[in-house]
Amino acid sequence: MEKKPFVTYEQLKEIVKQYPTPFHLYDEKGIRENVRAVQKAFAWNKGFKEYFAVKATPNPFIIKILHEMGCGCDCSSLTELMLSEALGITGKEVMFSSNATPPQEYKKAAEIGAIINLDDITHIDFLEDLVGIPKTISCRYNPGGVFKISTDIMDNPGDAKYGFTTEQLFEGFRILKEKGVEHFGIHAFLASNTVTNEYYPYLARTLFQTAVELKKQTGAHIQFINLSGGIGIPYSPNQKPNDIQIIGEGVRKVYEEILVPAGMGDVEIYTELGRFMLGPYGALVTTAIHEKHTHKEYIGCDACAVNLMRPAMYGAYHHITVMGKEHLPCDHKYDITGSLCENNDKFAVDRMLPKIDMGDLLFIHDTGAHGFSMGYNYNGKLKSAEVLLREDGSTQLIRRAETPRDYFATFDCFDILKDMKW
Description:
Elements: H1 9-18, E1 23-27, H2 28-41, E2 49-53, H3 60-68, E3 72-75, H4 78-86, E4 94-97, H5 103-111, E5 115-118, H6 123-131, E6 136-140, E7 147-149, E8 152-155, H7 166-178, E9 183-187, H8 199-218, E10 222-226, H9 244-258, E11 268-271, H10 275-278, E12 282-293, E13 297-301, H11 310-314, E14 320-322, E15 332-337, E16 346-353, E17 361-364, E18 385-389, E19 395-399, H12 404-407
């Protein structure tokens, strides 16, 4: 399967005249179409809501588009809560899921009326001492062990730092009910970036069965079940993408098999998708600025791991299109690198691509989630701009590139750098 950029070479040549590379480019048309597809897939559930994982793409312009279309925010830090509040997204439109949570974060979540998703049974007393126990609350569940679908190991929840054990979950519900909680939610994230239509229905079965037993044993009213994230995207062209309509239908069948007969046909289904919502609708655009012929053939770009960390951190694959050369043979083997003083600063290793000339524009696919947001400033490198490709083909700057002044801003309370020349 061929991966095609969501922008043409001619369009991109015009865009780079206005915004120098590197920058992250987002496709508004694709984002909106995908939101509609997710909502259609779960329209059978009257209370369905997608809480976008803000950590994936914490840009107010993007979040505003999602909110206009009915999405809420999944926040996991103080600044993410602040960002949501600044956009007018508060109350039950915010799900706050964190771990090892600092007091000020719980206080902010309570202040804006967010649904709090507790990560640990010890946090019950911690939260009560800080702000009291709300009438609606959620608990994050970790059944432990290895999570399998058939014989395929999907992930290892037993190694994850998140969530209540099964015993703690039942005990936690009893304690919270005694403390006045009236409406409960269950949340779980058991596997990351799955490219299979079976994951969500399989997870749903686990959570639905647990919910039925919780109701029996504790008498708790379970208002919602949050399937969290985990639906992945095909980073490689040879991967078959998930079909959200099949996934939604699979969850519906399990819902009607387990929850409806138990008298729980009013349970709302929530999701917290990040990668699936935005991953394919963002790209890192960079320019080839150096070529090196030593033990290998290298192409050096004006972007580096600061702009896209996943290949360096995980060895993750991101497809690369050499713009304007899409139909030329991939008969040159390159390592595509950045300029960090780290040998793992590579977007691709031994990648077969068309011959790359200096000045060529490289379109690095699938950076719309966990792309810009995972950036850092090692080596004194500066984060790039973010640009939105609007539905009408125009562009909008939605985050300017960092400047040296930004990098040194945290020294502004000292005199040591007062004579720095900008």
